[in-house]
Amino acid sequence: MGTILSLEVIHLDAWYWNPGWVETPKAEWQSIIQDLTLREYWIMDGNYRGTLDVRLSVADTVIFLDFPRLLCLSRVIKRRLMYAGQSRPDMASDCPEILNWEFLKYIWSYPITRRPGILEKLSQITLKQQVIILCKPTEVREFLQKISHFS
């Protein structure tokens, strides 16, 4: 989408994780998010709930990919196979793709534990902001087709 709209794409995983899967300390992470959101135009990719309020407060458009958990699980497994032993392009360096039980549980429980809170926050978005919820890959393809005609 960044290419279609000529916007910088910021992958939060690449900013949050340090080599060897070391997490960025919370205060530093908050500062990084503040700096990233000061940029004039961007697309931000990531599911970091602790910084969601900051990002939502400045975003003009929010696209929430609300995919079924089985699709998410299958894609994570595919990603693991595709990038086995290496860092993927949207990840920090020296963070080889891993798949562990904790992450699988996170994905499986997401619709119950996290999704409702996100939808609640999205329901509070101002009238000046747009929320787009896409639930299927076909909806994503159709959306990308639409915006490519306007750019």
* C-alpha termini separation: 11 Å
Give the overall pLDDT as a whole number. 94
* Class of secondary structure makeup: alpha/beta
| Low-pLDDT runs | none
The neighbouring-strand order within the major sheet is: 1-4
Shape: globular
Rg over CA atoms, rounded to whole Å, is: 16 Å
Task: Write the element-wise H/E pattern from the N-terminal end onward.
Answer: HEHEEHEHEHHHEH
How many distinct folded domains?
1
The proportion of residues in beta strands is 5-15%
Name a few traits of the molecule:
globular; two-stranded parallel sheet; 13% strand; two-stranded antiparallel sheet; 8 helices; alpha/beta
Describe the protein in words.
The protein has 151 residues and is α/β, with parallel strands linked by helices. It has one domain (2-138). Helix content is 52%, strand content 13%. The chain is built from 8 helices and 6 strands; from the N terminus they run αβαββαβαβαααβα. It has helices at residues 2-5, 12-16, 26-37, 52-58, 69-82, 101-113, 115-123, 137-150, and strands spanning 9-11, 17-18, 22-23, 43-45, 61-65, 130-134. The strands form 3 sheets. Strands 1-4 form a two-stranded parallel ribbon. It has a two-stranded antiparallel ribbon with strand order 2-3.
